[in-house]
Write a structure and sequence with these properties.
The chain contains 16 helices and 23 strands. By secondary structure, it is an alpha+beta fold. The chain has two domains: about 160 residues, Creatinase/prolidase N-terminal domain (Creatine Amidinohydrolase, Chain A, domain 1); about 260 residues, Alpha-Beta Complex (Creatine Amidinohydrolase), CATH 3.90.230. Strand 12 and strand 13 form a beta hairpin. Helix 9 packs across helix 16. The longest helix is centred in the middle third of the chain and has 24 residues. The radius of gyration is 25 Å and the shape is globular. It binds manganese (II) ion. The site of manganese (II) ion has 5 residues, from loops.
Amino acid sequence: MDQFAHRRAQLAETIGDGVAIIPAGREATRNDDVHYEFRQDSNFYFLTGFTEPDAVAVLHPSHPTEPYTLFVRPRDREMEIWNGYRAGTEGAVTTFGADQAYPINDLSDKLKDHLIGTETVFYRIGGPLDSTVLGMIQGLEPLATRYGKTIPTRIVDPAPALAELRLRKSDAELEHLRRACDVSVLGHQAAMRFATPGALEYQVQSAMESVFRQEGSPRNGYPSIVASGPNATILHYTENRRQIQDGDLVLIDAAAECGYFSSDITRTFPANGTFTAPQRAVYEVVLAAQRASIARAAVGTTHRDMHETAKQVLTEGLIDLGLLPNGIEESLSMHHYREYFMHGTGHWLGMDVHDAGSVQVGDDSRVLEVGMSFTVEPGIYIDPDRETVDFALVEYDLDARYERRYRMGRDAALKLEAEENKDARSITHEIPAEFRGIGIRIEDDIAMTHSGAVNLTGALAVDPDDVEALCQS
Ligand SMILES: [Mn+2]
């Protein structure tokens, strides 16, 4: 059984006697008949290994002859001359292991046969097939009301079950991830050697990505962030058009994808090869937080533990640097550190850079298990333009605030937060000028293996002396 068949068999336990309808990704038009680069939807690829758009997988484990059906674009000589090879219905069966395959245009007719007699349909609402699937179920109603047949009465989102499967990587899957990490490390090393004052950010990007490609990665795991100077304080900066100046730090958050698994690495380094004293001071704080958090990674540790550790060490460092007005307890309970560290410490990593899987299970933070892989990426971002910051002296529960944002909508929740802070005292704190505009993030990829937590990107220089040596080489 190949890995895709194995995954379908795993999902079949959830599907039971129901039917799962899993659509492929769709091409997005850039203009006229030109599309953006297509990359298959991860859930679809996870179950099928099929990389073409305009396809649907129907999983019906209890069906006697068609437990696995693929609907695909049919072979078409003219279309293939213009746009490339298609596996067609023949390939769907012989190469991709479908029990039956039909042209995608037959979906409406053939899917009906699977739905009649089925109570539960696993389908993610909000996908491209909403009107097809929901319309079809509606159209079947007379079969139930007049003829007493069973038709679907329940639609269940298959994504949470798929996420649980994707969260725990097999050895083979971790091997893909490991390769993506190795290739990404080589690309970052090339970028650190190449970058120099005067270069444009996208030229550094090109030096890095050409190594990704040469080392066997067909595409990036996500758009590369090459952020110099104050751009490093923008978390998801992807313009990459600035000319790097002498004295700048360069923050690169970029990684290769191999075998449909993505790495995710961030390094921050001095463009001219030498950290200034303030840059190094901030860097040491981020690095200490990252190392402390990574040291906690073990089976049984929770996702929250990882963040709490990074947060604690980072906040102590911010206080030592004179960036916060209070001591450790107030800085944490009033979340003042969030002026500089406003994101989480990490996320799951796998087929998608922000991979499937919840970080919370009921009321508890997710406990790390063998097979899980994730990033550890604390950062400090100091606004280039703010000379002073008003820190509100209000203790609050950050999780509760964020939950409220999702419940109420962001605008209404922000209004309420402002209302709650209205009467609070605040401290105006001056930000030392030498720190303004410094943005530093350090990110590595950790895999939980049978022999413990492994840093898959640990080969890339991270100690400030090693970073300088690499930049100067
Ligand atoms: Mn990341």
